[in-house]
Design goal:
This protein is 54% helix and 11% strand. It is mainly α. It has one domain. Strands 1-2 form a two-stranded antiparallel sheet. It has a two-stranded antiparallel ribbon with strand order 3-4. The model has no long low-confidence stretch (mean pLDDT 85).
Length: 171
């Protein structure tokens, strides 16, 4: 790879050095994970979609449901209902240190991202964010954001709502 000369609109030559771009990309890449979660002494971290897919395929431990319960301020029973896991299965699999299915792991990881983003939008004011999750919201059909946590589409719709809120649109 060498240095290339590129003509700009003002007909001046400008040198393009790909090494600069590569250095910039390395700096961005070495910043560290964007999201992480500590479960049962193990750290799960991801910053790219490929990292996320790897964790999803591996499966998160059943203890991750407790983490979501704490972050969302929802009872474990409600999280289990949203994910579709019976309480007895949860108790047994947690005791056996088993992993969630790929589908359930994906929902948990997406919820982690959503809850972290929500706290960021609400300037880390947890109580305000928790109230917002529980209140019916006109921009998502008059239902509470937390009621949409049972599907990826619902979680992404809540994420879109938070995006609108962050930029001052109706949310």
């Amino acid at each position: 790879m060498g240095v290339k000369k590129v003509k700009t609109s003002s007909s001046r030559s400008k040198t393009l050095d790909p090494k600069k771009s590569i250095r910039r990309a390395r700096v961005v890449k070495t910043k560290g994970p964007k999201w992480s979660i500590m479960i049962a002494g193990n750290k799960y971290a991801w910053s790219t979609k490929m990292d996320k897919i790897k964790i999803i395929r591996q499966g998160l431990p059943y203890e991750s449901i407790e983490i979501i319960s704490l972050k969302s301020n929802l009872p474990i029973k409600q999280i289990l209902r949203l994910v579709g896991i019976p309480q007895t299965t949860y108790n047994k699999k947690k005791k056996e240190h088993d992993s969630l299915s790929s589908r359930d792991s994906e929902i948990i990881i997406t919820l982690i991202e959503l809850l972290d983003f929500g706290l960021e939008v609400f300037n880390n004011e947890s109580e305000k964010f928790q109230r917002w999750l529980k209140k019916p919201n006109i921009s998502i059909g008059g239902v509470s954001p937390e009621s949409l946590f049972d599907s990826l589409t619902g979680i992404l719709e809540v994420r879109n709502c938070l995006n609108r809120l962050e930029y001052g649109n109706l949310a």
